[in-house]
Amino acid sequence: MEKLTAVALLDVIGELFSDETSIAVSNTTDYIYYRPSKRIDLKICPGDPVREGTITYKALTSQQKVSEFINREIFGVPYYGMAVPFFHEGKLEGCVTAVFPALNDGKSFVTVRIHEGWIPIPFSQVVYLEAKDRKTHVFTEQLSGTHKYSLQEFEYFLPKESFIRCHRSFIVNVNHIKEIFPDTHSTFVLKMSNGDRIPVSQSYSSYFRKLLVF
User: Fold this and answer.
1) Most buried residue among 90, 182, 195, 199 by CB atoms closer than 10 A?
2) Domains in the chain: how many in total?
3) Domain that holds residue 78
4) Tell me, what's the pLDDT at 19?
5) Which alpha helices (DSSP H) does the chain contain, by range?
6) Alpha-carbon distance 193 to 66, whole Å?
7) Would you call 170 helix, strand, or coil by DSSP?
8) Are 93 and 130 found together in one domain?
9) pLDDT digits (tens, 9 = 90+) for 128-179
């Protein structure tokens, strides 16, 4: 199979998976294909070596299907994945890996730094999160604070039924969206319950519309 044809086929297969699932394909040593999702991106590039400790590495070395949680030490973010090795005439040829956002482990709040102390905020009260000045700022209707986690890390434990990434710098709680306004170039502006306005970037607009069904 020609390389371009194989890539096109993998892209079509990727459409069978949820928009929140990243897909990686490797040979026995290196990644040969990667399709990130809007929800999780491990920043893998074709040609990158399969690193020890990853779920792909475990599936290749065991030559068996592996499904487990991987902590943030490998790619900088936690994830849950499923990897299945494939064979040709009995010989190991590579592995297909599906990467899913990590579960929130039952957490229902985020503890943010405010002035010289900290305060736990229930997820339901979080209006949106913004990445700014190398920190993540967490906003409610009454206050704001900061947290050391990046937005990408927040995506893996915030409840996905309520929180949506709408911009490289913003995650919003859909329960606090008061109105959605069209903007230029197929983008949107969100009016939030605390009065702030949040942009939906062009790269996230299609994903955002699909999740909110409009």
Assistant:
1) 199
2) 2
3) 3-100
4) 67
5) 3-14, 55-62, 151-155, 202-212
6) 43
7) strand
8) no
9) 999 998 899 999 999 999 998 888 778 777 888 899 999 999 999 999 999 9
